[in-house]
Write a structure and sequence with these properties.
single chain; alpha/beta; 434 Repressor (Amino-terminal Domain); Rossmann fold; 3 domains; 6-stranded parallel sheet; 6-stranded mixed sheet; about 45% helix; about 15% strand; binds alpha-D-ribofuranose
Length: about 325
């Protein structure tokens, strides 16, 4: 069964394909109301769906944007994608969603797919910090906005980010004020700039208090399983750890699972802090203390800025959002 075309409608209506096209594209000035109604009725009865790609080619706009994220299973990315999609729909744009598993080959594959689908722009959260995909977007003049993970070195690409270092500083200072000294830090993948920024926040504060020990920095992978695994490593390294600061909430949740299984009491034996403030963090027991990224606002802003760029309005370059300590039951 082939897709219904304008030719099919023209044959049934007994008019030319050009007449059908003018009616369906609201350009039918010199066509009688009777003919217009007949054509629209046939199109409806046949469930005719305009060819989006053909329309994009003629109008040079698809009213569609692409969203590329590293890991859909991580609620941070699904929550930010939700904000982008809400905002896009309000601005009458559709979205095509791509999950890359933090794999730069998949990133490149999806970038090329989105370009072939004639998207008007792309919102890009990179998995590995590889800027090759950005070169492809630049070469094809596809507007894009980076979110969360900054990978621009010299170029000042348009991006929406969280003040990562500031957020970690606030969390470490809070733990120190609560008498914790032996604080382990679990970073994300060290290849990422956000991991470097978060480690720096931890290292600076611990050095300011003459408590810095590089052996208490452990490299995580931003996954829940990775959180469990790295927590076992931490406890094997030092059973008297007083607090663990995880670079994202799902690693903290994995760590909590491991510690509770081993009979630790949270927070009495070990305090736990996460980073992100994904919705589920408020529903575990004890509820997770975390550094809240303004996830929804970041997604909303990124989408607004991208659509401003698509519509030819100059955009501000880097926009930064402040994180906020949310104290709950794990500290
Ligand atoms: O949870 C995933 C982490 O990677 C978040 O902290 C977010 O910043 C993303 O980059």
């Amino acid at each position: 069964m082939n897709k219904v075309t304008m030719k099919d409608i023209a044959n049934i209506a007994g008019v030319s394909k050009a007449t059908v096209s003018m009616v369906l594209n609201n350009k039918a000035i010199s066509i009688s109301d009777n003919t217009k109604e007949r054509i629209l009725k046939i199109a409806k009865e046949l469930n005719y769906i305009p060819n989006g790609v053909a329309r994009s080619l003629s109008t040079n706009k698809s009213q569609t944007i692409g969203i590329i994220v590293p890991d859909i299973i991580n609620p941070f990315f699904s929550e930010i994608a939700r904000a982008i999609e809400d905002t896009a729909n309000k601005l009458e744009y559709n979205v095509i969603f791509c999950n890359t598993d933090s794999n730069s080959k998949k990133e490149e594959k999806y970038i090329k797919l989105l370009i072939s689908k004639l998207v008007d722009g792309v919102i890009f959260i990179t998995g590995e910090g590889d800027i090759h995909s950005l070169d492809i977007l630049n070469k094809n003049n596809i507007p894009f906005v980076l979110v969360d993970r900054d990978i621009s070195n010299k170029e000042n690409y348009c991006g929406v980010y969280c003040l990562n270092e500031e957020g970690v500083r606030e969390g470490v200072e809070y733990l120190l004020q609560n008498g914790k000294k032996k604080i382990a830090f679990v970073s994300g993948n060290k290849s990422l700039k956000i991991s470097f920024q978060r480690i720096k926040g931890y290292k600076d504060v611990m050095m300011e208090h003459n408590l810095y020990d590089e052996n208490l920095i452990f490299e995580g992978d931003f996954t829940i399983e990775g959180g469990m695994k790295i927590t076992e490593e931490i406890i094997n390294y030092d059973k008297n750890i007083e607090a663990i600061f995880y670079s994202n909430d799902i690693m903290a949740l994995g760590g909590m699972k491991f510690l509770v299984r081993k009979g630790y009491n949270i927070p009495n034996d070990i305090s736990i802090i996460g980073f992100d403030n994904i919705k589920i963090s408020n529903f575990v027991e004890p509820e997770l203390t975390t550094i809240a990224q303004p996830i929804y606002e970041m997604g909303e802003k990124a989408c607004q800025v991208l659509i401003e760029i698509i519509n030819g309005n100059p955009s501000r370059k880097q926009m930064y959002f402040k994180p906020k300590l949310i104290v709950r039951g794990t500290t």
